[in-house]
Amino acid sequence: MKSVKHILLASLFLGLLVGCQPEPDEQKLLDELVVSTNVDEAADFSSYRTYALPTDTIGFVSDTDPNDSILFHPRSNYPRPVLQQIESNLNARGFTRVDRNDNPDIGVNVYVVNNLNLFQSVYYPNYYYPYYYGYSSFYYYPYVNTYVYNTGALVIEIIDLNDINPQNQVKVVWNAYMGDIYSTFSLIQQSTEAIDQAFVQSPYLSTGL
Amino acid sequence: MKFLIQIFLVFVAAGLNAQDFFYISWNPQIPTSETQWISDAATSSFKVGYRAFPGNSNRFSIGVDVNATTFAQYLPTETFVSGNNTLTTDYFNYIYQYGFTASGQYYWPLGEGEHFFPYAGIGLGANFNEYTRYYNIYDETDNNWGFLVRPEVGMLVRFGGRRAPGILAGVHYDWSTNRSEQFNYENFSALGFQLGVVLFNR
After folding, report:
1. Is B74 within 8 Å of A28 when comparing Cβ atoms?
2. Which residues of B touch A20 (CB under 8 A)?
């Protein structure tokens, strides 16, 4: 009987050993957003001077809803600090903000991606952003994304408006993905810090002036 | 994994001698290879095993051992550049290690041979490592099996007579062929310490 008890005890212990896999402290894991940036190495950022940026409005793209939508102030308190942080970083690098009708050199797209799966392969996304510029679509240079899955990401794109092809398409010369914005302790603070980091790790993003 | 556990239980149920015992021990380990990936000691680590003494000998035992260890280390924010992509994050590196060995031990009873039994032994078997890198809600995982060699030395202490409970304390060195190409992890080795209780079979 003692043998049976020992066998049962050993079995229980082995089950616990195999079943338990401790994971990291969630507070430590989620206190910063992951920041990934990609650049078209052929782009010459010192040739750009002016940019256009939406005011108080960012896009919202979801693969659970075929209709893209927007987040805007004051219904959401997220767009304004995000756009202000982007503007602050671009101005600090020598760029000048102008109205979209004043022939800016670059355009800045900002949107939230909801439940988008990103793969470790060459990626060719193709988004339509109806609130911006009236261009039908834009093509991306290919890049490799290191994420397997993303539930919510803040995306910034810089588009070269001086290079438009006959199909009325423009080129993305830089983008930043920051996530996961649905698992933050302080969404706005972590988002603005991530925006700063995106520019810090992109020293080429400057007019040079 | 389940097959190996079943083998362990069959061996245990056989039972060869009144001196045979189970042990459950705390088994902290310190990695001694690839320390740029993880260098911190693992304290979330346990080992269970069975020792059978063939015939009437109290000098020689054979046994099976199973251990589960979690190695973990936090690495502060770092920037990685790969082609035209730049990634900045802090992260955790983990190794979930499971070792399965068949082993043999030789004892040198001290004094009248009733209480203190220093021993030396060696275990051979299989090692399963799961390497995981956690950053924010994301993770990357790789796992594989390898061959495990485990020399050990220690002391078995029996309280009272042959069937009384006791203590098992020892030091062992694990070396295995596990590697991860994904994380550039070439081979796995660790220095382990164990301190546990011994429960005799009958």
Report:
1. yes
2. 68
